[in-house]
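Researcher: Go.
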Amino acid sequence: MNSSNPIFNHITLNYLSKCQTLSSLKQVHAQMVTTGLTHHTYPLSKLLYLSSTLALPHSLTIFNQIPNPTIFLYNTLISSVISSTNRKCETHLAFSLYERVLWDKKIRPNSHTYPSLFKACGSHLHGLALHAHVLKFLGLAYDDFVQTSLLNFYAKYGNLGVARYLFDQIRNPDLATWNSMLSAYGSGVTSEEEDTSVSMEALCLFTEMQKNPLVKPNEVTLVALVSACANLGALCQGIWAHVYVLKYNIKLNYYVGTALIDMYSKCGCLDLAYQVFDGLPERDILCYNAMIGGFGIHGYGHKALQLFEKMKFQSLVPDDVTFVVTMCACSHVGLVDEGCKVFESINENYGKEPKLEHYGCLIDLLGRAGRVQEAEEKLKGMPMKPNAILWRSLLGAARVHGDLQVGEIALQHLLELEPETSGNYVLLSNMYASINRWEDVKRVRKLMKDHGINKMPGSSLVEVNGAMHQFLIGDKTHPWSKRIYSKLEEVGKRLQQYGHKPRTKEVLFDIDEEEKEDALTYHSERLAIAFALVASDSTAPIRIIKNLRVCSDCHESTKLISMIYGRDIIVRDRIRFHHFKNGTCSCRDYW
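Model: Structure:
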């Protein structure tokens, strides 16, 4: 028999596809050699692919015996190698194979060569060089498959502008391409300021996608959409996505379930988050992490600890994130001893060495509780070098508890690690301002000016009737600006009637008290609250997302506003949630 017998060839290829061991594959390979099937590209490609999944060295042996491998065979092996589990080693091998393609004058790379290689790129520079090769060998007329792989590469390294440009060049993007761009918006964020704008872009892109009747969202789409809603606090859009999942029977797997838990938690609806968690047929470590984190940022430290213990009885082993969210939950409510026990359990119960992020949680836990000196000792005694996040946590604790000496030490380290981060200077300036050391405030501000640094402006998002509205400090660009400022004036008078005295110590400038009060009045969350009082239903909760920590005066004012106007006000700042109701806050002034 030979390769001209189609029935025998079909049987041989059928046996090949069912091979699950190297020995069975070798037997079929021998038959293929005998019948001459190894002289044909398609059977050879199947043999290379299957052998690479069972034993990559054997696949390379087969490949090296092929006299003149075609580009199709090279592409098959490169793709198989990239899909291998030993990623670091096989990435090097894949590019070695690509180098052989470049040296072979009889063949040229084609549009199937590059997508796998872009997946394997270990650095931005390698990807840029590969992009140059795409232009060299394929010109500008490469297909959407290559375009999408380029999009994914640039998104992976945070260049969302280029990724979006590439996306916009695709005439009829399929679902996978839409998902790539949506997911890119969820993973390419590098700062809190970008987080908001990028999440807005994701929602706008999804709206565009809905205009195409041929493209229907799947689990990947909805995870990207729900994640954007979580970042923005866009509850209405998040609920719409959840309803879509239920209406079209989209599988509520770990990823969709975790995204929904995270979204409801970050939108201030902890009860709904727990309903999703409790209703999941199966829960993995990601689901537990999201729910524990949700309890934490809402100030339910005891519930977070209970869930942490429950998770262990489900035969789930805590991962690095589990320890972080559980310790953070303890930190938010002052459960210092419990949080320290979680930290100690990392090594004692699980045989792991605490990582930098775990030490960061420990420093924050001790610092918030006023044990600033102990926090400093733990930081200095770490087995690894502290990063800027840890020093900033110590600086924040020193500011809250008035430990100027520790605050100055922390700032010195921060200036070495992050000389261009405005928040570091602002924290120390606030400390000096609170004790009227205005010369030191000016000195810190001069340092900022010398480094060309501007303070990050406060920004607040509020959702009213399903639409998101953004406000900056002193913002007068909103179409309802006159009504907003009129409402602010009314709110200010009513606060005075209730005996509110503005807390001006954190205002950085050495100015008159009256000017300081004005500066506080126009904080972004005040504008957002005023707008919601004017524009929303009088019974609806007011939900606000702020990019910075809520200042003490806004915190006190919002407590009173919730009582005066009978409104529930839910504020998510950079650190946690504050639920204001009837003149009180869920944080109990511990934040």
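Model: Residues 192-210 form the longest helix (19 residues).
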